[in-house]
Amino acid sequence: MAVDDVNGTLAAMGPRLRAAREHHGATLDGVSCATGISTSTLSRIETGRRKPTLEVLLHLSKEYGVSLDELAGTAPAPAAEPRAAAPLSFGDGKAVLPLTRYVGGLHAHKHVLASLEDPPARPRQVSHDGHEWLCVLYGRLWLALGDQDLILTPGDLAEFDTRTPHGVANASPGGPVEYLIMFGPQGERLRPRTPPAAGRGNRQPHRAQAGRQEQP
């Protein structure tokens, strides 16, 4: 494997490890107690500020019940369903596909939540360092942000400090939900550089505000 491929694989493990931990229902402190890996080390790995060692990956793979191939995104896809990149998939249909292949800086990844048969429960919340932008592509997403509940639909954008407790879920049965995440592990933020076009007033892309609340 080329050096660039190795670096790309290691960089993509941050969001995969974070997704695996959240799916496992564990906090950073809980994983630290179970594995002996410091909370700060786990946080730096998840946010792309540190490359994981093989020893760390073996501990986390065992703790989360996920294979190393799945964490690396190198698990072979079924022959009948070839695909360019292998997302980290879970038994409940959740999948995470990293879209960036480097260590540090802003990271992007796509999440897919499977269709539900029953009404969802309120999402379990987590908090960590960083800043996040979330944009819904398809379906209805329930974002539990602090004590607020936001229902986001295609085109809706949410931006928040990830130190605020947050969690997401498919907002309704009947179909999947797909959304993109841009995450700045050290608080990096997007910087709009294009002013509004002349003659179009002050129209801006729709953003879900903290005050907008809707019950699923």
UniProtKB/TrEMBL annotation:
Pfam families: Cupin_2 (PF07883), HTH_31 (PF13560). One of its GO terms (molecular function) is DNA binding. SMART domains: HTH_XRE. The keyword DNA-binding applies. InterPro entries: Cro/C1-type_HTH, Cupin_2, Lambda_DNA-bd_dom_sf, RmlC-like_jellyroll, RmlC_Cupin_sf, TransReg_Diox_bact_type. Residues 17-71 form the HTH cro/C1-type domain. CDD domains: cupin_XRE_C, HTH_XRE. This is Helix-turn-helix domain-containing protein. It comes from Streptomyces adustus. The lineage of its organism: Bacteria, Bacillati, Actinomycetota, Actinomycetes, Kitasatosporales.
